[in-house]
Amino acid sequence: MKRQRIVFSLVIFWFREVTSAFYVKAGDMSDYSTNNKRIKLFQSAADDHDHYYGKLEPGRLEELKQMEAELSAQLAAVRREKLSALRSRPLKIGIVGFGRFGQFIAQTFAKHATVVATSRSDYTDLAAGLGVTYVPLSDPVAFLAHDLDVIVFAVSILSFRSTLEEFAPFLDQDLRRRKELTGGDVRGPLIVDVLSVKEHARKVMIELLPEECDILCTHPMFGPDSGKNGWNHLNFVYEKTRIDKIILDAAQSSSGDPEQLKEATGGKMHSVHEDSEAHVEGVDRMERFLSIWEEEGCRMVPMSCKEHDEYAANSQFVTHLIGRVLGSQGLTETPIDTSGFQSVLKLVGSTTADSFDLFYGLYKYNENSLETIAKLQEAMHKVVSKLHAKEEQEQQKSVAAECVDVKVTVANEANQPTQTKRTGS
Ligand code: NAP
């Protein structure tokens, strides 16, 4: 009942906000007075919701259903308009690292954007099959000549620093080329990473990328296995790290007002509507990129890289660790599998499908992972000790019971010397 009330109040509040903003903005005063009555009707409902819950007036349920239908129609219209706005200005996205994960995201990006990929190995045919242009990593100039809005780094955690070290001078060179062409200030592409460890990625990007490049740190908490049927409701973690040369306060990314961005040093606040063309453009481009994940149904989670790594060590890393440990035990199907055991085999399958480099990267570049291993070892020791202790208790009980038995027998023999002796224990 309490939950129903809260939901009802929220719907009424939201509707009130949406309808009043909508009609006042539209400036259509003739409609406004009629609609004002409707707003009043809903307002009175909101103010008096206890009354409606006490006894539902005849026809009220119909009215509520009607309101609900109107709201969802309005929401659908907003979503359609947003989608068409996105599609009218599709981004040009470059992907560096066209391995398992790079291909997986490229497939979905291709629905929303023009995609150009590059990698160490030759993926020309595979890329063509996904509607993606392919350029070898040995030719970064040709890759950058595509004038990309966004470049996503999807290389292994282990090779991230070295790849960026080799790539960054070409970004610098491309910026100089464009500066000469335009004669004015130029902005680099937005650089995004998808690494499963975040503090390392953040540090390396701030250190190595030209300051004309904005930075967005992300971690899609899913992959080719868990996301094979779509991205709906899957978690997408992100931190807006740098916009228009300003490094943003990472902690604020997870808890503050999303319309306000705070500088990492000095704490100066920047509104997303700030009166600086470069800032507004940077925010807009970041939002357009994030909208792709949103449109695919991801649950968007703004979070600092530091906080991400703390959580991930005790969730993602421990999952991979257990999967690898059980995998190395050589578990296989049996004719009598329980559903619990089938889940275990699934875990082993999905974690070992990822490269060992990825697992090693999770271990090496998340400073919390060593503690996770120690905790797991301790927990294993605790559980096994508990088993041993129980077994010992049982043995002591049975020895004690045997002693009592022997004592009783001896006593019986002493008291009744003529009785036949008990045989066995
Ligand atoms: P991975 O083994 O972590 O990375 C493979 C990719 O790294 C390939 O594109 C490979 O290029 C490239 N690479 C490896 N060593 C390289 C080097 N020395 N120089 C240049 N490139 C190198 O497997 P992955 O699953 O594709 O993961 C890629 C990234 O996505 C990782 O950072 C991972 O943390 C992140 N991620 C993965 C998942 C997932 O479920 N798999 C989910 C979220 C995020 P070539 O193929 O050309 O050799």
Comma- or semicolon-separated keywords:
single chain, 425 residues, alpha/beta, 9-stranded mixed beta sheet, two-stranded antiparallel sheet, 15 helices, 11 strands, disordered C terminus, binds NADP nicotinamide-adenine-dinucleotide phosphate
- How does CATH name the architecture of the domain at 87-251 and 277-303? 3-Layer(aba) Sandwich
Number of strands: 11
Q: Name the bound molecules.
A: NADP nicotinamide-adenine-dinucleotide phosphate
* Distance separating the two termini: 64 Å
By DSSP (H or I, 4+ residues per run), the number of helices equals 15
Q: What structural category characterises the helix and strand content?
A: alpha/beta
CATH superfamily of the domain at 87-251 and 277-303: NAD(P)-binding Rossmann-like Domain
Question: Which spans have pLDDT < 50 for at least 5 consecutive residues?
Answer: 5-42, 419-425
Shape: elongated
Protein name: Arogenate dehydrogenase (NADP+), plant
InterPro entries: 6-PGluconate_DH-like_C_sf (IPR008927), NAD(P)-bd_dom_sf (IPR036291), Prephen_DH (IPR003099), TYRAAT1/2 (IPR045011), TYRAAT2_C (IPR059064)
GO molecular function: arogenate dehydrogenase (NADP+) activity; prephenate dehydrogenase (NAD+) activity; prephenate dehydrogenase (NADP+) activity
Keywords: Oxidoreductase, Signal
